[in-house]
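Backbone Fold Data
Goal — fold tokens
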Amino acid sequence: MTKRGEYAIRTLIRLGVAQRMSTPLVSVSRLAESEHIPAKFLENILADLKSAGYVEGVRGKNGGARLICDPEKTKIGELIRFLDGKLAPIGCASETAYEPCTCPDEDHCGLRMLMIDVRNAIANILDRYSLADVVTVTLRKLERDGLVPVLAPTPKPGPARRATQPPAKPRYANPADGFLAGLVKDLALAPAER
């Protein structure tokens, strides 16, 4: 996944969180700051998302961006294909953006066969879950950890509020922190619903 694709998906998730919190319009500067994305790069990403009908931009002093696609119908695989073109780790394993490789016998290439299985596994997950699913799991995890989403309205003066930064975690990808683990744990889905 490219940085552009990563930033775009993170932005869409944040806009989905904001929409669920009844604050659907988020300033571009606030999005850039909260997601640590260079503002000019984010503006270009938002322009692409706008042209594809995923977001809407509102001009003016209180302007910003908001989600206009249906998060329930917007699959993550669809978004990644739009942003980055393919899910396959190598071109000769792609269904949608096939590129021939330099292998002398593509039909019997073990690497290609393995990468087709990797692509299928990736596609099975990304095409199963919607933007709404990811937003739900994100909000549940924030609530579980007692954190306030960064895009929440600015609080009124009063008692101190808990910081919005998550606790420090080890610098590796713990399988227990994955989306599917979060989906099962945080949503407590019955086996028939999974």
Remarks:
- The domain at 3-72+130-147+175-187 is CATH 1.10.10.10 (Arc Repressor Mutant, subunit A).
- The radius of gyration is 19 Å.
